[in-house]
C-alpha cells in the first residue's frame, strides 16, 4: 500500500510502497479516505519535535474499517470512522477519572520495534499510532469512533484533530462562561475552532490575533468580534486597550514560546491563559512572579481535554445544526501525491485547512 514516508527532519515526504500487517489483538485495519494537513505534522517534518524515522505522519484522519483483530467490539468492518490520535485504554486512572485524552496505556500487544508497517525489511513507525498519510492504517481500535452515515469523511477527519482540539480547549479546558472575553493568538485550523466555540459559549468579545491579514478576515467569518494584526502593533497592548485591561481567557494556538507568554500577558487579573499550540519541548514559558497576587492561571490543553465518546458526537450534532462550521474550514483539497505541495502551502499560511483525498469510500 502507498504511503508518504518521512525519512528524517527537513526532508521531503517520499511516496513508497509499504507492507502492512494484519490487525492484531485490539487493532483494526482501516482504509484511509481523508487526511487533514496539520501544523503538528509540520513540526515533525521540520524537526521541532523528534520522531522515530522512517515514519508515516498524519493524525487528522477518517476512513472505513476493513478488518478488526481479536477482541475488538467497538467497530466492525464497513464502519465509517474518525481515527483518533489518542487511543484510550478505558480503565486506567485517567480514563476512569474522565480524562481519557491523557491516557498513555498501550492498547495493543504490538511492540514498538515491530510496527505494522515495513519498507522492505525496515520497520516504519506511525505518528500517534495512526500514520494517516497512507492508503491503510493498522491502529488500536479504541481510538476509532463510528460516525453517522450523513456526515462526510472530510468533516470527520477534521473533528479528529483541529475541531476537537479547538472546541475542547474552550468548552472543556477553559470552560468559557457566557459574557466572558477571549483572545485567540493564531487564526489557523485550531484557532478558528477556538473562535467559533467561544462564540457558541457566548463570549462577549473574541479578539483574533494573527500576522496575516487574510486569516484575520476568515477569523471574523468564524465569530471574531475584533482583530489585531500582530505584525503592525504590539498584540498585548492592543488586547488590553480593546478590553480595558485584558481578557478572561487568552488562547495560544500557534505553538511558540513568545505567543504563549503573550497569551498569559493578555489575560487580566484572575484570568487564564490556555496553551493549545505545540510549543517545542525544550522551550521554557516565562510568566511574571506576580502570578500569585494577580490570581492568574496558565494551563495546557491537549486534544481539547476530550472525552471522545461524549464530545465528538456532540460536535457532529452542532455541525449538523449549523452551529459549528466545519465545511468552511476546508479551503483546499489535494490529491495524495501532492502532499509536499500541501505542506508548502500550509507553511506559507495561505490556508485554514487543507485535506488530502487519499482513497475512495
Ligand atoms: C498533535 C499532538 C501530538 C501528536 C499528534 C497530534 N496534536 C494536534 O495536532
Ligand atoms: Zn493536528
- CATH topology call of the largest domain: Quinone Oxidoreductase, Chain A, domain 1
Mean pLDDT: 96
CATH superfamily of the largest domain: Medium-chain alcohol dehydrogenases, catalytic domain
First-to-last CA distance: 16 Å
* % residues in beta strands: 25-35%
Largest sheet: 7 strands, mixed
Small molecules bound in the structure, each named once: cyclohexylformamide, zinc ion
How many structural domains can be distinguished in the coordinates? 2
The structural class is: alpha/beta
Write the layout of secondary structure elements.
Blueprint: E1 2-5, E2 14-17, E3 19-20, E4 27-37, H1 39-46, E5 55-56, E6 61-68, E7 80-83, H2 93-96, E8 117-119, E9 122-126, E10 136-140, E11 144-146, H3 153-174, E12 181-185, H4 189-200, E13 205-210, H5 213-221, E14 226-229, H6 235-243, E15 247-252, H7 257-266, E16 267-275, H8 291-294, E17 297-300, H9 308-320, E18 330-335, H10 339-348, E19 353-357
Parallel strand pairs: 5-9, 12-13, 12-15, 13-14, 15-16, 16-17, 18-19
Antiparallel strand pairs: 1-2, 3-8, 4-6, 4-10, 4-19, 6-7, 7-11, 8-9
Helix pairs in contact: 3-4, 3-9, 6-7
The protein binds cyclohexylformamide and zinc ion.
Cyclohexylformamide is lined by residues 38, 40, 59, 85, 128, 161, 165, 278.
